[in-house]
Amino acid sequence: MKSTWTSRFTSFLFILPYLAAFGMFLLFPILYGVVISLQDFELLSDAHPFVGLRNYITIFTPGTHENSIFFRGLWTTFQFVLYSVPLLIVAGLGMAMLVNALPAKLRGLFRTFYFLPYALSASVMAVIWLMMFDTNAGFINSLLQKLELTGIPWLTATPWVWLALVLTTLWWTIGFNMIIFVNALNEVPEDYYEAAAIDGAGAWNRFMSITLPTIRPVMLFVMITSTIASFNIYAQPFLLTRGGPGDTTKVLLINVLDQAFVRKDIGSASAMAILMALLIMMVSIVQFRLTNRKEKV
Amino acid sequence: MGRTRRIGLLLLASLIALFVLLPLVWMLSTAFKNDFEALSGRMNFLPQKPTLDNFVQGLSGELMNTPILRWIVNSLSVGIAGTAIVLLIDSMAAFALARLPDLPLRRTLLSMFIASLMIPSVLTFLPMYIEFNTLGLINTYQALILPATAGAFGVFLLYQFFVSFPKEIEEAARIDGVNKWKLYTRILLPSAVPIMMTLGIFTFMGIYNDFVWPLYATTSPEMRTITAGIAMMATGSYTQSYGKLMAMTTIAALPVLILFIAGQRSFVKAITSSGVK
């Protein structure tokens, strides 16, 4: 194909609008964020003197406020990842298998039911659960009282806050994992199971020796996406527990945004955001390595 | 499979469905209760004195600092505008990457876009805020629309589709002297309608449901999106007005729930093609 200067130019025009958006609202902010993290950047001040790595050093200096909120936030987030991710995977796979075991006519219906909460926004989800978990008038405590049990301070005391956060997260996002697993299960070749059935393998054996190995890449994908999503948790503790009781559920993202918008220290908050992003990206890179997937370019 | 086992599975599936749907049913039921009944702790799914007051008060703007109708209009507007821009610029870019081999830096750009899919949003959040603040665009529609146009997901999704499009049709068109723009608008775009619908639903729901960015990118009550507005209500003076809150969440959830049920297939397709295979 002939490729003149004009032809190359007109080809470039097609990509220009997106490239502009990409440059202005993705590439530039990434680079600018690095610059900000190297500055003493107060939100309301006009001068932003360059301070080198000071913001980073402060975060790693024990005893400073920044050190405390970064690492305590990180630990809180890590706890949430630890509690939520195994459930998100196991329950997601379990629900996918359950849906697939239903009569064909009912599958679509139940899949829609389970997937429905995923369509809601974070604030709608949170407000619904604020009401469900309300200590005095909430649905769950009313139910417990009917059963002559005492009410539970779901959003104000440990360990209940964790249970509440994990439950709402499951309710809200499990449909996503279920859909991915349903798709993966449908792609396991039917004759594998037939061959195993002839060999007299039981249901558990078939699951362990056929289903699990075949869906392993998808399992890994779900594991990584769930970990990243849980790492980014914000709306649930922000709206449901307000980080409480005390600082128990103040996750990293809450602390980073507080540092930026409450303490108005954008420089230090940017340094924290970059460290957090690096941690998240390390998880993604592990995914690429483990699944060994190659994109066609 | 045994009959008892089948019934057992169905029972289990129904029990889970109950757990999933109950909060939504309770939301709907509470929206029709007055504040007194909503706080009474009674577990009646049918309101004793059903009332439309929560909806009427909410929609008429009688509630302090909560112009709900305006929020809905804001959310729908920025959702539609953002989706339109994404569909246009992403399809043009994907077309160039997949179909115009003389595009300068083709491979570099493609790798860069794919790599950007791994960038967590926390990395761009604060600098983007400062960028919009410097441009004087905080608390404007631009701030709610533009950041959504930079994502590479749509480019990648459409690129995969355009790459698999048969070459013969394109070559026949080229011999007929069709230029690039016509190739894009007359031949590739019409064939891409289903996948564009998928991307459209996905993008719209993403913008409509976005939570953290609109919370910080808007500062005055009338610029809030419904998602941010409800969050402000819930953390502000309406904490215990469950009837009103539930009427608002019902209104807020309705557009996406309808879109979601209508476009569920499309939506599932977008998710499963987002990189699992």
UniProtKB/TrEMBL annotation, chain B:
- Chain segments annotated as transmembrane: 71-97, 109-130, 142-162, 183-208, 242-262
Signal peptide residue numbers: none
**Compartments where found:** Cell membrane
Superkingdom in the source lineage: Bacteria
Name where it mostly resides: membrane
Q: Does the keyword Membrane apply?
A: yes
The reply on keyword Transcription is no
Domain ABC transmembrane type-1 as annotated: residue spans:
72-263
Q: Which UniProt keywords apply?
A: Cell membrane, Membrane, Transmembrane, Transmembrane helix, Transport
What the entry lists under Pfam families is as follows: BPD_transp_1
Report the membrane topology from the UniProt record.
Answer: Multi-pass membrane protein
Q: Which Gene3D superfamilies match?
A: MetI-like
Q: Which family does it belong to?
A: Belongs to the binding-protein-dependent transport system permease family.
This protein is called: Carbohydrate ABC transporter permease
Organism for this UniProt entry: Paenibacillus tritici
